[in-house]
Amino acid sequence: MTTTSSRHVVLAARPQGLPKPGDFRIESAPVPELSPGQVLVRNLWMSVDPYMRGRMSDRKSYAPSFEVGKPMEGRAIGRVVRSTHPSLKEGAVVSSMLGWREYFVSSGEGLNPVDPSLPLAAYLGVLGIPGFTGWYGLKMIGKPKPGETLVVSGAAGATGSLVVQMGKIVGCRVVGTAGTDDKCAYLTKELGADAAINYKKAGDLLEALRPACPTGIDIYFENVGGPLLDAVLRLVNPHARIPLCGMISQYNLDPPDPGPRYLFSMIGNRVLMQGFIISDHLNLYPEFLAEVGGWLKSGRLKREETVVEGLENAPRAFLGLFSGENLGKMVVKLAPEST
Amino acid sequence: MTTTSSRHVVLAARPQGLPKPGDFRIESAPVPELSPGQVLVRNLWMSVDPYMRGRMSDRKSYAPSFEVGKPMEGRAIGRVVRSTHPSLKEGAVVSSMLGWREYFVSSGEGLNPVDPSLPLAAYLGVLGIPGFTGWYGLKMIGKPKPGETLVVSGAAGATGSLVVQMGKIVGCRVVGTAGTDDKCAYLTKELGADAAINYKKAGDLLEALRPACPTGIDIYFENVGGPLLDAVLRLVNPHARIPLCGMISQYNLDPPDPGPRYLFSMIGNRVLMQGFIISDHLNLYPEFLAEVGGWLKSGRLKREETVVEGLENAPRAFLGLFSGENLGKMVVKLAPEST
Description:
alpha/beta; Quinone Oxidoreductase, Chain A, domain 1; Rossmann fold; 2 domains; 15 strands
């Protein structure tokens, strides 16, 4: 297979509030010849993730800002289609941080071969950073014990859907929240959640949560931010744990919404709230992959992806995260896996 | 010395919002004869503390509610004035939870002899629960390191004034907040704080805090609740720690004020927020007393008490906590120490 040019997505402008299609621009560039020791990779799948919203702004953060006029970046799974590299052979499948583009040339640095016997798109979701994030946050901060009650916001999303299933594997009562009835049905019927709450229809979240958590809340896995946390704080049990993974509802707001009124419930109940960033813990990725990959292979774990096709639709896929258009992981298919 | 009756304070009514004098009532009762093995204690000092507000309501909490019409309770230091007890002799000084009264009869259970060579009122403050709370929260949750920046709210109060001084002993830059210029002067001139902010005059707390914390904030010791936390969250350094000790500004509000908008800063900065209750950690009291008592004896630590005299003024002393009338520990003197 040969190609002479590759399309990529550049950041056209820093978004004000909710990003819009005009903040992105599709460009194309010639694919350079390979120098000795290089590979040409064709991306098969690329990831769009909520954290990318932070990188689109110029606010100082843990991940560097995207530059206006430059290609965006993110996780991708691609196939080596041409190689002069000593070990990365043509046909190999690799993960990289060079998403948002169709092809790239690399010296191999930052590329990691993946086991092609597992579903490739899963490396962007349940076996990738979203899954790893859920696994770490629940296991290392949430520390779930059998019989405890775990509440998960954004439960039908990439991270939440793993957290829900892990909670059930551990033996917790699991309550998930999501923004459509279909997602709620998915949580209870497919993922085994004990209860699901459609936060858009629930009205008073405290009254919705109370019957779903008859023995209180021991762990709240926070993906979303906003008013649910306040309701949770009124139902927490002593020594509850709150891993803060994401607050997607706040990323496009400046200033963000006011926070929970019942924060002082954390004192009497000795609650732990801990923010975390998965890139601090990459040393645990092999342990994660062994455990969660094993569950996936054995069929104990379900995975779901919402697939958008074509690089030109990648901005739309990203924007869809903020309106909840994804069930499970939102991924963009850039080329057939048989490539 | 002989007495036939003793006055005590009963909870007359559960307060709505800010407690008022009518929520308390002074009663008196005859002092019973001693049965064999009992002591009669005359209280010298009693404590009024913000946490008592929670016990005045009937909301379920970590400490049991006071009953309407019954005597209130709290920490006190008293002298044994009559004894048929085998080891608690006349003249011994004991701490108890039987404050809010002039005299009580006891079998000795729950009484702890204290070393009378240290200032007795200090056992209600820097050497008592307020000091122990500050010591535990700063040392075990805040984990201060030399060169870090520590911000303390309610810094001129019973707990805060120890936290400020401990921060300096460890080698932190310490910034305290308080509600009067006199308290701020006390923080910088007496306690060694590097900066002090009068939150009532400061206007925009973020702009007040920023120049006081030129290298960001590593620890925020929360005594007060309310808007300062939000400003802190905009200045936190990675891996900051926030021990949640108290939120006195919220105890009389129903519903409480909205919380911080910038909670999601905890994610990118991997911030730990941990509520705690000192009664979970009483096993550490001897370690605390050795360390802080040592500082006090050697003059390394300053202490301050605001003294109100007479049981009839105990409700007023308690109410004064919510308007910040105390510098250091608010205590009520019930009898001369020479009693």
